[in-house]
Amino acid sequence: MPQHIPLKDPSGDIRIFGARAVFAVLVVLVLLATILARYYDLQINDYEIYRTQSERNRVQLQPLPPKRGLIYDRNGVLLADNRSSHILSIVRERVDDLDATLAELQSLVPISGADLENFQLKLQRRRPYEAVPLRLRLTEEERALLAVNRHRMPGVTVDAQLVRHYPHGELFSHAVGYVGRINEREAQELDERNYRGTFHVGKVGVEKFYEDLLHGEVGYQNVETNAHGRVLRVLERFDPVPGGDISLHLDFKLQQTAFEALGDQRGAVVAIDPLTGGVLALVSKPGFDTNLFVNGISGTDYSALRDSLDVPLFNRAVQGQYPPGSTIKPMMAMAGLESGLVTTESTVPDPGWYRLPGDSRRYRDWILKIRGTGHAPRVDLHMAVAQSCDVYFYDLARRLTIDGMHEHLSAYGLGTRTGLDTTNERPGVLPSTRWKRKALNQPWYPGETLSAGIGQGYMLATPMQLAVAATVLATRGQQRAPRLIRAIGDEPQEAPLLGNMDAAPAHWDAVHESMRAVVHSARGTARKVGEGMRYEMASKTGTSQVIGIAQGAVYVEAEVAERHRNHGLFIAFAPYEAPTIAVAVIVENGGGASAASPIARAVLDAWLVADDEVGDG
Amino acid sequence: MGDYVRRLQLPGGSADLARRTPLALRLHMDIPLLLLLLALTGFGLVVLYSASGKQLGTVIRQGQYFLLAYGVMFAAAQVDLQRYQRWTPWLYPLAVALLVAVMFVGVGAKGAQRWLEVAGFRFQPSEILKLVMPLTVAWYLAARSLPPRFKYVLACLVLVSLPSALILLQPDLGTALLIAASGLFVLFMAGIGWRYIAGAVVLAVMSAWPVWMYGLKDYQKQRILTLLNPESDKLGAGWNIIQSKTAIGSGGWDGKGWLNGTQSQLDFLPESHTDFIIAVLAEEFGLRGVLVLLAIYLLIILRGFWIAVNASSNFGRMVAGSLTLTFFVYIFVNMGMVAGLLPVVGVPLPLVSAGGTSVVTLMAGFGVLMAVATADTGSRR
To answer: Which residues of A are catalytically annotated?
Structure first.
């Protein structure tokens, strides 16, 4: 029998099947009986219980939204609190004709398109007999009007709820961020259970970054209502867990000083405590009143903000990417010393221009236009930083190579996000041959190394990155992820240490000394800032070219002459001997560093000098 | 064999021989099964009208799905059983390939990737497996002597695990279990030894703890915990169970009457026209209505086993037995879940819940069942 397969014992097979089928039917019968018993139990034995329960399904579960955590500055000044606000809601099940009710309500109080849109969205996701919000922030007058007419409109309710309020409006718009009404995309991502009853969610900044912490846990109560939906009594109640209060490193006074010092100019100021990494001030101008967003910004308000040439919604401090210009020179000097390519004694001849070997093109020093010659016949490191000599750094950059620069400057946090606890932070660009190959698919050209050596060309940094770089200089190599949060409740939060450079103390001494000379020497580029100063500071000026540098789509429409002026930059830390604050300032189209340095001085004064001592300079 | 006989007869057979074959057999329809299905789908539409909040549109759309599904059933019944057997070794790799495709180019929602989109048309390859899985195991065992030897049982387990694992990865635990079950039912019908079955049960019990610790996702654990204590999650999943139990219980023996269920009509009941539709039926038609529904289901299952036992080939027997048992699993899981006996998994009440995909797949299964029932008219009568 070569194949035993098909011709087996058919009757045996059938017997097996028969037995199995009978067994299967028995199992099916038993399980169906189990199901039936369960339904019998529910429908016959417990009928009375469930009948009462369904009749009383006027007992309803109401979510109790938690109170959102408050946000304080380092001294306990409230930056974000909650205010009682009256909300007009509708219980769909109690309304016979929704369209008629909505029309009637619209004749009483203004209801915007955005309100209606939000309402329809919530309507689809509601639980039965859940009140769906239609209009937030009713005025006294509107409440009175509704109270008079409400008896004619069953299912319409007015309740009080806590809503976010920002007491200082524009001052902290970019530092704290804001909450707004939950949109459809967010509704899908959020935990539906925990956000039942919550209308708002953090949209940007600290409000978004710490959303989980600030929001808290939803509670609920079982209430008995009458046929018209009025609550008769609360049967049981589980309190919500309020969101955690947080305090930030921000200092109200310092923030205000920076805000005022910037005046009407566009720009950003970031101040960081180098010892803790705590962000003391974060200003981006222009800002906007964050309260506008809380209850749904109107279309005209929003398009005004969105379409403004000044892009007020753009957080320049963390999103703005600018060529850092000469502010990178102290870091370049440190790289030169550490790599052994220069010493404090070595010098470079400075005719006011530089030429690559075998190339006829002249790379000019900024001073050539002013004096027609270089800074001095030969320039050393100290003079190169203090007087911002381009030629010195052209030469250093060539010898260091672009990839050497990339390696050394990475230790200051350039080219990667600083890790600040906020949203939308951008990484800037610290170019390298690999970066250019990846980003542009082009080889690196030697001339580009020279531009990079003075912070131009492809190199881009955010003001936050420059402030962090200033703290790395101030702490002699410690790089911390900057932090806005200072404490959750009473529990202090620490900024993680990202790196610690292992460099010779003598090199730091030399670089610090050269940075001190920027202000405190006769020929320093920012000597004017030092007048009447009661402490010493280390700093560096910078100017970055606007023309020919892509700033993204942001400025495409802004091809106006004023907006072609150079950006002014300034980084500093003080007091010189034991720094307690580091700042970075950028003034867009300020013309040069002289637009930025007085702002930095004002911020340092506010932090270091007691109130009664300021103002005599 | 039966087909062989028929083929011998028909070409030479006279016209009156063909006329003597009943119309139903020529159309490959099993009349009792067809009548039961018509009764079930008709009842389903009546309940759906109430459950959907008297939306005629939903009922009409479901009616259209039923028309399509009956068409698919009719078509599936026309295919010769031996052709199914020949196609199976091609269908299985194709279905598995589609599942692999889902992993790479599939689309989905809420973290699960279950769908394939071809020319704007979306379908779930795992649905195909609901038919292909039993066909495959039956095809494999039909060529071997029964009860299957140990190594063949092992081979079957491999055939079952591969697609099940792929579906589990989507992740879709419910469907993966259903499909694995449909393959294992074939083994059961093939008469594998009781010691295998006992061993599998012991293994399943022993693996419960590690699966709970490492295998289940948080939301899956939550469902099981919610089942044990629905009060623990009143705002979330527990709500559904509390509401559906209230709906069922308040129906009593007589029910509140069609369109009069307060729970369902006042929208307390979630998913009332899809997975939780039995609660609407129980509320409005009472335990009487539940008994009628269970009776129809039971008759369909009994008819399915009758077809299986009387099939002309082992292949037909195994396929019919497995399809019938799988159909029962749907009923058991859905009715148990809504009544709070089993955790909430997305299994519809077969041929009653609104929805197109499951209806078409189920009816295609019944088409195959009818193909089994009418395969061998020549030899048997």
So the answer is: 326
d(CA B124, CA B107): 10
Among 3.40.50.150, 3.40.710.10, 3.40.1360.10, 3.40.50.1010, name the CATH number for the domain at A252-288+313-613: 3.40.710.10
Considering the segment(s) A60-248 as one domain, its CATH architecture is Alpha-Beta Complex (3.90)
**Six token digits for residue A550:** 């892509």
In a shared domain, residues B238 and B186: no
Is B303 an 8 Å CB contact of chain A?
A: no
Residues 6+ apart with CB under 8 A from A432: A402, A403, A405, A406, A444
Q: Which of B287, B325, B328 sits opposite A39 (nearest CB)?
A: B287
| β-bridge partners, A178 | A204
For residue B3, give both structure tokens.
């087909």
Interface test with B, best of A25, A36, A59, A126 (most B CBs within 10 A): A25
| B146 interfacial to chain A (CB closer than 8 Å) | yes
Range of the domain at B250: 46-78+230-375
Angle subtended at Cα A181 by Cα A177 and Cα A183, rounded to the nearest 5 degrees: 110
Hey, are the CB atoms on A53 and B253 less than 8 Å from each other?
A: no
Residues of A in Cβ contact (< 8 Å) with B201 = none
Q: DSSP per residue over A52-64, as a string?
A: HHHHTTTEEEEEE
Q: What is the ipTM of this complex?
A: 0.88
A113 within 8 A of A144, measured Cβ to Cβ: no
For B216, the token pair is: 């289940």
Tell me if chain A has a CB within 8 Å of the CB of B9: no
Where are chain A's structural domains? 60-248, 252-288+313-613
Model pLDDT for residues B131-178, shown as the tens digit of each residue = 999 999 999 998 888 788 888 989 999 999 999 999 888 877 788 888
Say which range, A70-74, A446-450, B142-146, has the weakest mean pLDDT.
Answer: B142-146
Across the interface, whether the CB atoms of A61 and B239 are under 8 A apart is answered yes
**Interchain pair B251, A43: CB under 8 A:** yes
Residue A459 has φ and ψ, to the nearest 5°, of -70, 130
Q: How far apart are CA A235 and CA B345, in angstroms?
A: 32
Per-residue pLDDT tens over the stretch A335-381: 999 999 999 999 999 998 898 888 888 888 888 888 888 888 999 99
Residues B199 and B163 in one domain: yes
- Residues B122 and B184 grouped into a single domain: yes
Identity of the residue in A49, A93, A127 whose CB atom sits nearest the CB atom of B249: A49
Beta-bridged to residue A163, according to DSSP, are A83
Q: Which of A215, A233, A213 is nearest to A223 (CA)?
A: A233
**Would B1 be classed as within a structural domain?**
no
**Residue A567 · residue A590 · CB < 8 Å:** yes
pTM score above 0.80: no
- Burial of B266 per CB tally in 10 Å (0-12, 13-18, 19+): middle
User: Is the domain of B239 the same as that of B366?
Assistant: yes
Say whether B332 and A18 touch across the interface (CB within 8 A): no
Chain B contact set for A14 (CB, 8 A): 309
Q: In 10 A of CB A502, how many CB atoms?
A: 8
